[in-house]
Amino acid sequence: MSEIIRVFLTDDHSIIRKGVKATLELIDDIEVVGEATNGREAVETVASANPDVILMDLVMPEMDGIEAIRQIKAQNPDIRILVLTTFAGEDKIFPAIKAGALGYQLKDSEPEELVEAIRQVYRGESALHPIIARKVLQELSQPAEKPPTPDPLTPREVEVLKMVAQGLENPEMAEKLVISEATVRTHVSNIMTKLHLASRTQVALFALREGLASLDEEG
User: Fold this and answer.
1) Rounded distance, CA 11 to CA 85, Å?
2) Euclidean distance between CA atoms 63 and 67, whole angstroms
C-alpha cells in the first residue's frame, strides 16, 4: 500500500458523498479515488479505482452494503472496508463485521474521528465507534438468561446456526441448503427455542462464544 491512503466512497446519498469527499480532500495523506452510488456499482467499479480503504454505507438500492462487502472481499481480500452508516442496530453491526468490515463508524462522528478511523483501518486495525464497540462487547459478554435445553441441535440446525453467524439471510440459506425459506425459518425458530435466544444476533453471538463460528471465517 502507498503512503497516500487511497479511499473509495460508497453511499446512495450524493450530499453524504460530497460532504465526506470535501472533508477528506483537506487531509494530506488521503486521496479519494472513486465513488459509487450503491453496492452493485461498488463491486463493479472498485477494482479499477484500486483503493486501500472503502467507506461503505449499508442501506442502499440495487445491492446493500453487507452483500457488497462480501463480494468485494471475495475478489480482493486485501482491501480494507470501513462501514459509515446511520444504523447502530445489532442486525447491521454483526453481519457487516462478519462479512469482512474492519471498522464501523456512524455518520454523526466528528470529521477527525472519521479520518483517524480511516488511518486505523488502513493499518489493518479495527476501528469501531464507541457505541458500536459497547454493543458488541455487551452482546459477547451477555450469557443466555436460561441454560440451553438438553434437546441437542440437529446437524442441519448446526449448519443453519453457522450460516446465521455468517450474516446470511433466509433466501441465501435456502439456496445453499437447497431447501425452502419456510424450512429455514423453522430451523431458525427451533434453534432460538432450544437455546433460549431472542434474536438472530444472539444466535450468531452464541455461535461465536461456543466456537462454532469466528470473525475470521469466510462467509
Assistant:
1) 9
2) 7
Give residue 55's region: left, alpha or beta (phi > 0; psi -120 to 50): beta
CATH 1.10.10.10 residue ranges in the chain? 155-209
Q: Each residue of 70-121: pLDDT tens digit?
A: 999 989 988 999 999 998 776 788 788 878 888 899 998 899 999 999 999 9
Taking alpha carbons only, the member of 21, 202, 214, 5 closest to residue 100 is 214
SS3 56: strand
Cell, residue 50: 484500486
* Domain 155-209 sits in CATH 1.10.10.10: yes
Q: What is the pLDDT of residues 112-150, one digit of tens each?
A: 999 999 999 998 888 888 777 777 666 655 555 555 556
CA–CA dist 109, 130 (Å, integer)? 10
Q: Which superfamily is assigned to 5-139 in CATH?
A: Response regulator (3.40.50.2300)
Q: Is the pTM of this model over 0.70?
A: no
Which of 160, 154, 211, 151 lies closest to 181 in space, CA to CA? Answer: 160
d(CA 20, CA 34) in angstroms, rounded, equals: 12
**All cell numbers assigned to 110:** 466528528
Q: Are the CB atoms for 36 and 8 separated by under 8 Å?
A: yes
